[in-house]
């Protein structure tokens, strides 16, 4: 039987990220570090995409970096929280003259409010799909990866990052001790090997994945929770507590979290999974019972 308690309430997640649009960049230290790492990996790739999809663009900083890197490309900034797209327009910091140049090139900002699991884009319409720390908010990873594969052109590149199961392990342990595991406290993140299997199922060949661990440190639990709130990372699972858990819960949470304190600081672990893969060339569609014949050149 499938445990639906970890299913993401998309309406709650969308509202949380919408409220965090103005505070996101100041608190998104980890997101910036991962974005910079992903951009550096593009240095190793020979790619000239006509269209780029930034899936889960947040405040649009990656979209702007990609537009600068691929000046002739059309970048589509997609997010399911509309206030994030409004912030993307603001963070572009494009003057009137630059706007005119972009319009003459047909490169005005392309903002799209939609869900990664159901992309409103034509098949084989993009050369690069980029997604930084977004697909963990999907309920159906297979659906998201299949959509990425569908909208990519043959020989197009998927590059993404997401969180692995060790993410916020300290907070997970502390909240479980505080609430007796009556409620879900943190999203369930998917293991790297399971992500790789899902990529193969989606049609990607020979996906490449690796893991990097980050540890942010805080003075107290309130600071941990404040940072998560600032980036919109609220508990949006269906199994969450629906009301205030009270002062007693928070006191137990703080007491339990203390077991992880080192050198006067409380750690918050984040396991980041990086992945990339190419969509292969499309095979010719043949009628049933018909097999292709390959001729070798005479040597």
Please outline the helices and strands.
Elements: H1 10-19, H2 24-27, H3 29-41, E1 51-55, H4 61-69, E2 74-79, H5 82-91, H6 96-104, E3 110-113, E4 126-132, H7 141-151, E5 152-163, H8 169-179, H9 192-202, E6 205-218, H10 221-230, H11 246-257, E7 266-278
Parallel strand pairs: 1-2, 1-4, 2-3, 4-5
Antiparallel strand pairs: 5-7, 6-7
Helix pairs in contact: 7-9, 8-11
CATH architecture descriptor name of the domain at 4-166 and 188-214 and 271-278: 3-Layer(aba) Sandwich
What strand line-up does the widest sheet have? 3-2-1-4-5-7-6
The CATH top-level class label of the domain at 4-166 and 188-214 and 271-278: Alpha Beta
Order of helices and strands: HHHEHEHHEEHEHHEHHE
Uncertain segments are: none
Helix tally? 11
Would you tell me the structural class of the helices and strands? alpha/beta
Q: State the total count of DSSP E strands.
A: 7
Report helical residue fraction. 25-40%
Give the biggest sheet: 7 strands, mixed
Quick take:
By secondary structure, this protein is of the alpha/beta class. Helices cover 37% and strands 20% of the residues.
Describe what this molecule looks like in 3D:
Helix content is 37%, strand content 20%. The chain has 299 residues and is α/β, with parallel strands linked by helices. The chain has a domain at 4-166 and 188-214 and 271-278: Vaccinia Virus protein VP39 (Rossmann fold), CATH 3.40.50.150. A seven-stranded mixed beta sheet has the order 3-2-1-4-5-7-6, sandwiched between helices. Helix 7 packs across helix 9 (192-202) and helix 8 (169-179) packs across helix 11 (246-257). The radius of gyration is 21 Å and the shape is globular.
């Amino acid at each position: 039987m499938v445990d639906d308690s970890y299913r993401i309430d998309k309406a709650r997640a969308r509202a949380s990220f919408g409220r965090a649009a103005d505070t996101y960049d100041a608190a998104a230290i980890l997101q910036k570090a991962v974005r910079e790492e992903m951009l550096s990996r593009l240095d190793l790739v020979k790619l000239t995409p006509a269209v780029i999809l930034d899936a889960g663009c947040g405040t649009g900083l990656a979209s702007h970096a990609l537009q600068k890197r691929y000046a002739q490309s059309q970048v589509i900034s997609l997010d399911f929280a509309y206030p994030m797209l409004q912030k993307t327009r603001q963070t572009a910091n494009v003057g009137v003259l630059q706007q005119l140049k972009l319009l003459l090139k047909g490169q005005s900002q392309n903002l799209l409010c939609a869900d990664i699991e159901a992309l409103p884009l034509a098949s084989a319409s993009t050369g690069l799909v980029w997604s930084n720390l977004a697909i963990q908010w999907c309920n159906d990873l297979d659906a998201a990866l299949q959509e990425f594969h569908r909208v990519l052109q043959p020989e197009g590149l998927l590059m993404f990052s997401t969180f692995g199961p060790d993410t916020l392990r300290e907070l997970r342990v502390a909240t479980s001790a505080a609430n007796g595991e009556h409620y879900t406290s943190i999203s369930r993140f998917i293991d790297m090997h399971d992500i790789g299997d899902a990529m193969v199922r989606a049609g990607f060949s020979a996906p490449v994945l690796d893991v990097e661990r980050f540890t942010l440190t805080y003075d107290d639990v309130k600071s941990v929770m404040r940072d998560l709130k600032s980036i919109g990372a609220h508990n949006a699972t269906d199994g969450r507590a629906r009301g205030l858990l009270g002062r007693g819960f928070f006191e137990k949470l703080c007491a339990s979290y203390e077991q992880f304190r080192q050198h006067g600081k409380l750690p918050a672990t984040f396991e980041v999974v990086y992945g990339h893969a190419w969509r292969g060339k499309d095979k010719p569609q043949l009628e049933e019972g018909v097999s292709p014949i390959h001729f070798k050149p005479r040597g």
